[in-house]
Amino acid sequence: MYAIIKNGGKQYKVQEGDFLNLDKLDAQPKDTIEVKEVLAVGGDEFKVGTPYIDGAKVTLEVVANAKAKKVVIFKKRRRKDSKLKKGFRREYTRVKVTSISI
To answer: SS3 of 69, please?
Structure first.
């Protein structure tokens, strides 16, 4: 069984036992989070919500809070002697999908 959930303006296809990197959440490791914004559930039969499925939820367990690898943004305008170099590290919360219920 799989589900399509919405979190932070993005959609994720999840199954039990999957690990996800979600946008930073205010949660500590070993906390439990319930996501009730379930857009669709598939498996034996496929259900689509309008926009969400009533009573469906996905339970997530927080594994860790971390930062991603650095992304370097470098802009150069040729012949202008103009350069810009910035770095960015996304903060995320790593979660494990423990259960999907309809």
So the answer is: coil
